[in-house]
Each structure stands twice: as C-alpha cells, then as structure tokens.
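pasting input
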Amino acid sequence: MENAQDHMTTASAEGLIAFAGVTPRKRGARMNTWQSVRADVMERIRSGEWAPGMLIPTEHELAVELGCARATVNRALRELADGGILQRRRKVGTRVTARASRRARLELPAIRDEVEALGQTLGYRLLHLTTAPGPAEARKALHIIAGTRVVQVTSIYRADEAPHCFEQIWLNADALPRFDAATFEAEPPHEWLARSVPVTQAQFSILAEPASDGAAEALGVAPGTPVLTIERTNSLNQIPVSFARQFYPPCYRLAMAD
Amino acid sequence: MENAQDHMTTASAEGLIAFAGVTPRKRGARMNTWQSVRADVMERIRSGEWAPGMLIPTEHELAVELGCARATVNRALRELADGGILQRRRKVGTRVTARASRRARLELPAIRDEVEALGQTLGYRLLHLTTAPGPAEARKALHIIAGTRVVQVTSIYRADEAPHCFEQIWLNADALPRFDAATFEAEPPHEWLARSVPVTQAQFSILAEPASDGAAEALGVAPGTPVLTIERTNSLNQIPVSFARQFYPPCYRLAMAD
DNA sequence: AAGTGGTCTAGACCACAGT
DNA sequence: CTGTGGTCTAGACCACTTA
C-alpha cells in the first residue's frame, strides 16, 4: 500500500468503497479518465454491442456503471459527438451515428511551418505588388466599396528550391497598418499579417482549378495543369482584411485523420 | 457597448442573501459561461491588449478576475487552443498564437446529406463492379496481401440530374459482411458500409487531379479537366476495410470557417 | 522545488424537448 | 410534467516543465 488515504477530507465512505471495489489508483491499473471512457465507448461501438443508429445509455447510467463522475462521461461523449461518432439531443439521448459523415480537424499550417516541418528550407520571393482592386471574387470577399484602397501581392514559396506554393493576396489597406513593397520583400504577407494584427476569424475554401498562366510559370508546370487552390479570408472584428488564393502543384495533398 | 456594472452579481453574493447571490439569473444579465469567458479573451486579443506571442494571465488569475471557477476558464481556453488561437504549455502558461496557422473543422458529410441539404434530390447509379485488386494506391491503403479478396465498385451520384460526384471504392471483402452486385445497385457503398459496420477511424486526403477518361465521361467534362479528389480510407479496429476516391467537378468547393 | 495546465469529483441548477 | 444533456462550482490531486 502506498499513500494510505488521501481522501480523508471527503466522505470516508466513498474512500472505503473505492478501495474495496473500484480501486481507482493502482500501479498499472486503469484510472477513470475521460479518455478511458471514450475508449470504452468506442470499443462497444466497434464490437457491435452498440450498433449504428442505436441509443446508448444516459450519462448518469454510464457514470454509475463505470464508477466515475457524470462530468467525466460528459467530456468523453462530447468529444465523440464533436468527431461525428455520436449524436446527442437533450431529452432524447445519445445515438451512434448511422451516416458516413465525419468531422475531421484540418490543419491549415502557415507555409513556413509546413515546409520546415519536413526539414526543408523555405524560400520566399515577392513577384509583384500593385494597387489593382483585384477580380470580382477578391472584391466580394473583402466587402470592397468604392474608394477602398486594395493592394495585391503576388509571391512564390519554395521548399528547397522546388516551387511549393504560388500565392495571390489582396490586402485591405484601409483596415491595416502601413506597409509597402519593402515590407513584403522582407517577409511573406501572411507572416506580416499574423505579427501585425490579431486575426480573429478565418474562412477557407478548397477547390481544384486549372493553373493560370502566372501560376503555371511560377510553379513550373504547364498552363491548365490542375492545381489545388486554398482560398482564405482573414477577418478582424467582422471586417475582412485579407483575401488570399494559394495554389499548390499536383503533387500536393492535404491530409487529415479522423 | 457594455454598461459599467457587470460585477453586481459577485458583489451581492458577498453582501446579501445567498439566494440572490448564488442565482445571479437576472433578466438581461449574462452569467459567467465558458462562452462568455471565451468571448472576453477574444475581445482582449482583438483589441490588442494581448498581442500575438504574448503570455496571458494564468487560469487562476483569470478565474479570480472574472469571478468564476477555474474549470470554466479552462474550458474556454481549451476551446481556443483547440482552434489554434492560443498555445498552452504546463508550467509556462498560455500564449497568443503568433503564426498564421489555423485548425478548422472540416465537415465531410455523406453525399446524400450534402445534396439533400441543398434541397436537391440525390440520384445514384452503380456503373461497374469487379473483383479487380485495384491500383497500387488502393492496395497499399487497404494493406492488401496476396489472396485478399477485393471488390471495386464504381458509381455516379447526381444532384437533380446534374453529375455531382464520381466514386471508385475498393472494399476488403474478407473483412466485411457478405455483399454482391445487387447490394450496390440498391444502395451507395458508403451508406451500406455505415449501416453494416461501425467504422472507427477514417483518414482523408484532398488533392487536385486531371479527370481520368472514366471520371470525365461520368461527370460530363473533358478528360484532363481539373477535379477535386477526396480519398478516404475507413478502418475498423485498425484494419482498413475500404478505400474510396471521390471526384468532384470544378464547380465544387469545400468550405469551412473559423 | 515550484508553478502551470489537465483532470476528476460530487452536487447543483438550467435549457430544451418529448409526453 | 419529466427526463436528458449542458454547464458551473469549489476543491483536490496529478503531470509536466522549468528553475
């Protein structure tokens, strides 16, 4: 017996029951963590004990059965519902999802992190900077009205000299700190943006497109080659401050699990 | 926009009757919910009070300042860290993320849900079923070894008669319940899969590709047209049971926010 | 050794939605 | 009405990391 009684402050009856039955804290024994509850639930789903579409026991029932607090069960079931494994409704209960839908967490890393995580060196070069208001898509994303100053920045990112990403970004100059061409010769727009303003909301869109002439040249592929496009709108306090289109060559993949 | 007296509840809890203090339910008053704490933190980040890269107060300090339990603060900060807004490390503290990275939740709905959510009618047709072991990619994803029975199912989904998605799926027949051609004439493979086995893990990959001849014909586009490809591997208890490639025409977008 | 986040608990009240 | 999930609280212990 190690630490004899650490629960003296709480009800001693609880402590006795714990010793006799559940043994909450043994050497290699399993504790009642929310992860263990989640694993237990997953196991019952996997084994078929709880089939797709079926109603599972209530939080209270599970807490009693597993000998843990309802809050712990709640945490576990909430995580599973977050991932689309379960569906929860008040008064009704918790159901095993019968659909093939999933909610996966997608990492949209900064390009620098993405490249350096592979042990490669990021190369960045500013290709073009102009005050053109941009295409209709960019104007719409930025809620541009007449007179708004918009700056378009075009640049290329390389991973160990190989083209990695071609980026066009439109910045709402009226809603951002001062910047000029020298700013983006020294630093990628998104890094400057992250340092300069606390972006509070981001929207993303992913699609497949044929490479434009400019993108094709920068990426070293033939015009019309399929490229993966990630559109990103950054907002600050409901006001869009930047709209970016990032183009990745065909070898690029966005991967995620569960 | 806020009025000056937010802390009446905590003040009265100390001075007046327990009833009024413990239940601060006033008409328009807001309680200390974890959402309100999250909003408060976001507001301070947005206002620049807490700049990117900066260390914010500890959970305990925030709990005291906001007059709520530390668990409530923890929930709020955990949600923000989940979204990539904050970074937390034990003993060090909580920092405002200075990078442009974000973690967004991507919904990969079942095709039926996706189409019907737009008020359209889903059309499904089985195009082809064969026992071919499939390309190297599929064999690798399914961990195929010699002798494993693999069935390839090719099908087309339509939304109100317009081609919506061309799908190729390879099924590990040795790890699944019995099925045959009639099974998938009646029901899309993923719906049958979701009904039949409790898929416990899914992996996704998103890329842009030129449409193959088969995909182009089914989708009604020219061969070589860029298509958005979503690859999905479903696993049951660590064993891959299906590998699917879904091809979407150029108009298709995956959208997400936050 | 000490400080910070991570989690568990037991109890309580509330919000919502079927009955 | 009743039952279910959603959340808050106060306290406690634990895990990890830095000093």
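fyi Residues 10-11, 14, 24, 31-34, 68-72, 75, 89-92 of chain A lie near DNA strand C (CB under 10 Å from a C1').
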